[in-house]
Design brief:
By secondary structure, chain A is an alpha/beta fold. Chain A has 18 helices and 25 strands. Chain B has twelve helices and two strands; from the N terminus they run αααααββααααααα. Chain B starts with a helix and ends with a helix. Classes of the chains: A alpha/beta, B mainly alpha.
Chain lengths: ~525, ~260
């Protein structure tokens, strides 16, 4: 087994306003699967991006087998033997498995030029594909560029060889769009392995896989490790780690908070590494009692993502929804709002069943939703703050369909004051605002409809600490006015800080319900993990 | 058309719709309908074809580009079918007013300035569109749908409804143009309007509307129409041949858009 070592020393990455990595020194060894854990924003993805050449560090160095690497682009990282499989698959669905594996490096034949000696398969595997050939005139030419026509047979043979080397069997001529997610995941890995990397990083590879598919993937990872590849495995699923990893390294706030062999990594120890000592965030106290139920969900299901969800929400109550990525949090809010069509169950507002909910209908019944993706779902980027601030509330501002601009201005200026939106004027483009202020415009937009139930999907994603605090204050303020709130967040501390009650979604079901009073972060986290 | 493009859609059928509306009016009048009801029927049919494109978009997710492309040839064929290939000229007397009626005469110097009915219609349509787009919930919804359909949907705006409505309005306006043209030429000819859709889209784009939707001004389109009109007219006065005119128009459209992009950056 060839020995090898990927080390980082004092890696630091500054972003405007935040430090993503603050002096990270870690080492990953060949032949081992090193797990990298940490909550959102701990710096895992920044570290992976730096190693994959997608992001350049502010300072610090990366060494592979003692040699310092310059990683200025993903291409360079690949050339140095570092490959990454990212969480979102990057395959082209309408191309075949073979084409995807060899994308950009398809072997060619049919030489037209005079400089390169004809060779039917001037095609070399992996890193060497970029090797150059010396031609008779002493010109150096890229071996990949020498052919005119794609050598399909050669390409499929090559792809099949890569797959069989990995001990996999897949039809290389099949279209990727016809494969299961697990198979696509395997194609991604084969694509990465076709560069014959010495380091392979896998970011949440199991998040979309079923149990038996996970088994297959783990087998593959194990066999790669046996071949001496340095494997870095990122996962949120703690119970998987004991099956696949040899050691666990945790990041917290941009620093390494600890590394331990897998034998010592009990769930308790891992949570301790990830969160440190439980910061006793202020709890909002008991939920208001004896109030009327505004929103009720009975037996709601959505495809195979949500199963039999039932919940009730009282006036002024803030209900948090916790769960891992892909547990169905967004789908729950979207189906309640009628933006996704539930496949079963019913939704009741004020005790009355809503037939065929649509966003328009739910809006009239008093529901509002600040959606997960601000950029693609929340704002209309070409519009001004004024226009964005009264998209949902247009009907409330207009009389018989006619808008009076003065009134519109008054309403949005009211939002700007109340929600402390920082802007020189409401005629500015919405895109001129910071993320936090954009989010406040989105929230204000909904408050103008005078909602009775307000749903927030990851309202604090990508916004600064101060704006976060302000958004929490806004939510608490709504609660005091008797508006019920549903609050989804990946940041479990946020849920404890803001919500009266938390439900935990796991595998599409409500696994647990807790009052936040006396609930610890560890307990909540373990609930999400199913540990 | 400005509205349609702001909503992120496109209507390629307007040229044929102009021809068809003129022919339909002529056909119905020949069939003995009173002129006013023939005109209304033509407008209603225009709105219906537009709405059809909208429904295909909203319900079946067929791009408006495709449906209106089909309508472009379909309506043109239908116009020929209706007329047998020859212009219909059997219009009653009052009908000419629509295309060439004089609303107002003003002495000006040694000549006089006349205000023709189609100009009045043009002005009314522009003002109405301007008010609709800027001062009504509908207008703002059009911008929202064109700018970010998903955000608009999540704000409870009926995205499909907006798409159907803008296409129906454009269809009706194309029919109106067809009726006015038929009246002016006192014939309903299947040959008119050919290639107009591209001139119209060009005027909208020159007027600063984004082809990807979400941004644009009604006044900008008026400027675009006048701009292109003035240049075409000027070239005619300068005796530039039709082929030369076309080349010049192409160059101008490209230059106008390049200039506005450069200005933005």
């Amino acid at each position: 087994m060839p020995d090898g070592r990927l080390e980082t020393e004092g890696l630091r990455k500054d972003y405007p306003g935040t430090v993503a990595l603050d002096g990270v020194s870690v080492a990953f060894e060949a032949g081992k699967v090193s797990a990298l854990i940490g909550k959102n924003g701990a710096g895992k993805s920044t570290l992976v991006k730096i190693l994959a050449g997608a992001v350049r560090p502010t300072s610090g160095s990366v060494r592979l087998n003692g040699r310092t690497l310059q990683l200025r682009s993903p291409r360079e990282a690949l050339a140095q033997g570092i490959a990454a499989v990212h969480q979102e698959l990057s395959l082209i669905p309408d191309l075949t498995v073979g084409e995807n594996i060899l994308l950009g490096r398809l072997p060619k034949r049919g030489h037209l030029n005079l400089f390169v000696a004809p060779a039917s398969r001037r095609w070399v595997h992996g890193r060497d594909a970029r090797a150059t050939t010396n031609d008779t005139d002493g010109h150096r030419r890229d071996a990949r560029a020498t052919g005119l026509i794609i050598d399909w047979k050669g390409a499929f043979d090559r792809a099949a060889a890569i797959l069989s080397e990995l001990g996999l069997s897949l039809d290389v001529r099949a279209k990727v769009s016809r494969l299961s997610i697990a198979q696509q995941q395997i194609v991604e890995i084969a694509k990465a392995m076709s560069y014959a990397p010495r380091v392979l990083m896998l970011d949440e590879p199991t998040s979309a896989l079923a149990a038996n598919e996970v088994d297959r993937l783990f087998e593959l990872i194990r066999s790669l490790a046996r071949r001496g590849v340095i494997l870095v495995y990122i996962s949120h699923r703690l119970h998987e780690l004991s099956r696949i990893a040899d050691s666990v390294t945790a990041l917290r706030d941009g620093r390494v908070s600890g590394t331990m062999p897998i034998g010592e990594a009990t769930p308790k120890a891992i949570v301790q590494l990830m969160f440190g000592d439980d910061v006793a965030a202020g709890r909002p106290g008991a939920a208001p009692s004896g109030r009327a139920t505004v929103l009720e969900v009975r037996g709601l299901s959505y495809r195979d993502i949500l199963k039999d969800i039932s919940l009730a929400l009282m006036e002024g109550e803030i209900l948090g929804i916790a769960g891992m990525l892909g547990s169905g949090r967004t789908e729950l809010l979207m189906s309640i709002f009628g933006a996704m069509r539930a496949s079963g169950g019913e939704i009741l507002v004020d005790g009355r069943v809503v037939r065929r909910p649509t966003p328009g209908r739910m809006k009239r019944l008093g529901l509002g939703l600040a959606p997960e993706s601000r950029k693609t779902q929340g704002i209309v980027p070409l519009m001004s703050i004024r226009d964005n601030g009264c998209l949902a509330g247009l009907a409330k501002i207009a009389k018989h369909g006619v808008i009076w601009k003065a009134r519109q201005r008054r309403v949005v200026e009211g939002n700007v004051r109340e929600l402390q939106i920082r802007t020189p004027g409401i005629e500015r483009a919405i895109t001129s605002l910071s993320g936090g202020n954009q989010q406040k415009v989105v929230i204000g937009n909904w408050l103008n409809t005078r909602p009775r139930v307000m749903m927030f999907d990851e309202p604090t994603r990508g916004i600064d600490v101060q704006a976060k605090g302000q958004i929490f204050d806004i939510i608490r303020g709504l609660s005091r006015q008797g508006i019920a709130c549903l609050f989804v967040s990946s940041e479990l501390e946020e849920l404890l800080e803001v919500c009266h009650r938390v439900i935990i979604l796991r595998d599409g079901r409500i696994a647990e319900t807790h009052s936040t009073e006396g609930l610890s972060l560890q307990r909540l986290f373990e609930g999400c993990m199913g540990a | 058309m400005t509205m349609v493009i702001i909503a992120g859609e496109i209507d390629l059928s307007v040229g044929s719709a102009v021809a068809f509306a003129g022919c339909l009016t002529g056909y119905l009048i020949e069939a003995g309908w009173p002129a006013w009801s023939a005109v209304i029927a033509a407008l209603a049919f225009g709105a219906a074809t537009g709405a059809f494109t909208g429904v295909m978009r909203a319900k079946f997710n067929v791009p408006s580009f495709i449906t209106s492309l089909a309508l472009l040839t379909g309506l043109s064929g239908a116009a020929f079918k209706l007329t047998g290939g020859y212009p219909l000229t059997d219009f009653p007397e009052g009908f000419a007013f629509l295309g060439s009626g004089v609303v107002l005469r003003m002495p000006l110097g040694d000549g006089e300035l006349t205000l023709m009915f189609p100009v009045v219609v043009l002005a009314c349509v522009f003002v109405a569109t301007f008010l609709l787009m800027n001062y009504t919930t509908f207008g703002r919804s059009v911008y929202a749908v064109g700018g970010n359909a998903e955000a608009a949907r999540l704000c409870g705006i009926s995205v499909g409804g907006v798409r159907i409505a803008v296409l129906a309005i454009t269809g009706a306006l194309a029919a109106l143009a067809g009726v006015l043209l038929a009246s002016r030429m006192s014939s309903g000819s299947p040959e008119v309007g050919r290639g107009w859709e591209l001139d119209i889209i060009a005027a909208v784009i020159v007027g600063g509307t984004s082809l990807s939707g979400g941004a644009g001004r009604v006044w900008g389109t008026l400027v675009g129409v006048i701009f292109i009109g003035v240049i075409v007219n000027g070239m005619r006065l300068l005796d530039v041949q039709e082929d030369g005119q076309r080349i010049a128009r192409g160059v101008i459209i490209l230059l106008a858009v390049v200039l506005s992009k450069v200005q933005q950056d």
